[in-house]
From TrEMBL:
Native organism taxonomy: Bacteria, Pseudomonadati, Pseudomonadota, Gammaproteobacteria, Alteromonadales
Name listed for the protein in its UniProt record: DUF6817 domain-containing protein
Domain annotation DUF6817: ranges: 15-97
Pfam families per record: DUF6817
PANTHER family membership: E3 UBIQUITIN-PROTEIN LIGASE
InterPro entries: DUF6817
């Protein structure tokens, strides 16, 4: 599972060449957040393609308020960098209309997905749901931990609880500690 450090360094250089250092994020450039998300997924001993998706998870812009490093017309180029499986998850994460989709996860048996780029609604791809949950949690953990004070809104904690059954035992163990600290 572990990616060679030189390979990770190469991927980070690719992101930097696309301008990830110029985009501001919580307490620093976007690059730091992308690497932070990757490292969380790696620590949970998840599949390399999921870790790489974490590293590139904002390349197409992760929500309407954030800039993109590449347009969705360059998906083939991203797939060449990180593999088709990782790129598929990156596109899903970036295209997800999160206010529409996230409240359904764990509350509904079938989750409707709305693509914020196209406006199309379809059934959430079941084969990507667990990885999407892992990536979403890792992203939000990195964001919260890079604020001046680690804090989670009640809606984020509720989302983590709904996603809990869908994630790995390593992720669940980290969430257990988080729930003790912030849900007491």
């Amino acid at each position: 599972m572990e990616i060679r450090k030189s390979n990770l360094d190469e991927r980070v250089k690719q992101l930097q060449s696309l301008g990830s250092e110029e985009f501001a994020h919580i307490n620093g450039p976007l690059t730091a957040h992308l690497v932070g998300t990757y490292k969380i997924l790696e620590r949970w001993q998840l599949d390399e393609s999921l870790c790489l998706a974490g590293l590139f998870h904002a390349i197409y812009g992760s929500d309407p308020t954030r800039a993109q490093l590449l347009g969705t017309d360059q998906r083939a180029e991203v797939a060449a960098m990180i593999g088709e499986k990782a790129e598929e998850l990156v596109y899903l994460f970036c295209s997800c209309d999160k206010p529409f989709v996230l409240p359904q996860i764990g509350a509904e048996t079938k989750v409707s997905f709305r693509n914020r780029f196209t406006g199309e609604t379809s059934e959430f791809p079941a084969h990507l749901l667990n990885d999407f949950c892992e990536l979403t949690i890792a992203n939000d953990l990195d964001v919260a931990r890079n604020k001046s004070e680690e804090y989670y809104h009640d809606d984020i904690l509720a989302m983590f609880k709904r996603m809990y059954p869908m994630v790995s035992s390593h992720t669940q163990a980290e969430l257990d500690l988080l729930f003790v600290k912030f849900c007491a």
